[in-house]
Amino acid sequence: MKYLLEGQETARLKFRLLKQSDFNKWVEFFKNSDAARFLGMQDIKSANEQCKLWFDKMMDRYENDLGGMNVLIDKSSNEFIGQSGLLIQEVDGLTELEVSYSIMPQFWNNGYASEAAIKCRNYAFENDFTDSLISTIHVDNERSARVALKNGMVKTKRSVFKNMPVNIYRIDKRDWLETVR
Q1: Which CATH number fits domain 13-180: 2.60.120.1200, 3.30.565.10, 3.40.630.30, 3.30.1490.100?
Q2: Does the predicted model carry a pTM greater than 0.85?
Q3: What CA–CA distance (Å, rounded) separates 181 from 169?
């Protein structure tokens, strides 16, 4: 499970693995109308089914060393903020490492996604997991696009991923090194 950030922290967040007991908290995320659409689950009608699919995918990722989302816990309030992590993805025929983030709507616009994404980026590059990171973002998801830009990424192309139109944002390790020197 080398791509997981279990036990990592930022100034405000703790990272831990997703547990089955998180289901009732995370199902609330899918009750937001954009969540399913931006994650390519728009054809699954119920929030419970969407959440179950999410959990099944994350547990499969954990078991098969394909990265995965980590639960984000606010260090001061101990609240469940959302999830973020590094995911091995197949995009346009290439295997890529993706920085991914999903924040509960009540915590939007507080900088949590950017804070988590930056930690994921730094963790991947500091541990030499890859020379390049991506984020695949639905073309209508302006909030996530802003996070990718704050993470030092640039939009490199438009594509189709999980049957949805996405923009691919990328940062190369050599560009990241210039910002940390």
Answers
A1: 3.40.630.30
A2: yes
A3: 22
